[in-house]
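INTERNAL AUDIT FORM
Audit reference: QA-55
Scope: verify that the stored structure record matches its stored sequence.
Auditor: D.O.
Record contents follow.
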Amino acid sequence: MELGIVLGSALAFSLVTWKLRVPTALGQLVAGILIGPFGLRLITNLTTIESVAEIGIVLLLFVLGLELDPFQMRQIGVGVFVFSLVEIGVSFLFGWFAGIILGWSAYHSFVLGCVVAVSSTAIIVKMLHEQKLLKSMFGHMLCGALIVEDMFAIFVLALLPSVASASPPSILDLVWLVVRGALLVSLALVVGTLVIPRLIDKIAHVELENREAGFLVSLSIGLAMAIVAYVLGFSAGTGAFLIGLFTLGKRARFVLEKILPVRDLFIIIFFVSMGMLIDPSELLNPALTLPLVGMAVAGKFLGSYVGAVLSRHQEIAGDMAFGMTPRGEFSFIIARGASSSEIGRAIIYPATSIVVLSTCLLSGVLQVLRKSQKRSLQMVP
């Protein structure tokens, strides 16, 4: 019953946002607000939905790792790297300063800076694909920056459990963190390069008689490493991302083909469930909304513009600044990882929802205006 309500509302609002040419994630968030405990109260028990959303996060990061090649990542140009460092750094500082303005603690200001610093890979790549700009210099720069941002987000997720402690970590704590991190990366590397290729090659033969085998093994790979990461004190998504990253070539394509359909289902549920946690009254609070939206938009625009100029792409600096505007899945994933306490949930979720909703809406409006401008220019004789 609850799953039917979630999917039905997500479909309806996704169609509306598609018609309006704004990101579908915005429609799914609005659907969650409407059916959740702060809306029509069609769903009030979020325990099951949140559990499913957690699986969606793991699968999202697993797929992201599968789509990246660690050897190709070395080919990211210096210009992309400079652009990424500048726009991430400036955006983070603006987000951190917004937390200070709101009177938040150092930890919550740090988390807000991370939430604001990371753009939405899903929304931006879809935008580039629709506008046929993926292979342009503009698309190359944005996609390269998104890869760097994703790596930054994974690093933040790995650090959050340690940063969340009330007391500063000791030298021994830092050493233990490094040891656990090295162990997790080593396990993912060994399993991804030695175990998984042999396992998938065997399953590929068995699948001729049992088609479910490939799907179950593909799903189990990501979930198993997620459990390992959780046991070692990291976020489950970090482990899933790493094992996906070290699964290469045709084996990565095999796994990706098996889990993409179910991944999309869980991601829809993830965005709807995030919407259920949003209290619409918070969106109407100017004391909270104005600093968040102002700093989020200004920080990303300024950071991207300056980064584009420093990377010698001043001719497309404005387009790059507007293109990096929307925040989405990683902002919510970071917020979710940082909101284990009731205080964190009360602070981080409203802030993240305001940032994501406003930047998604702004991104959609900018796309519509840009298309209208292009049509007007084409009509000029």
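Auditor finding: record pair retrieved intact. The chain has one domain: 2-379.
Action required: none
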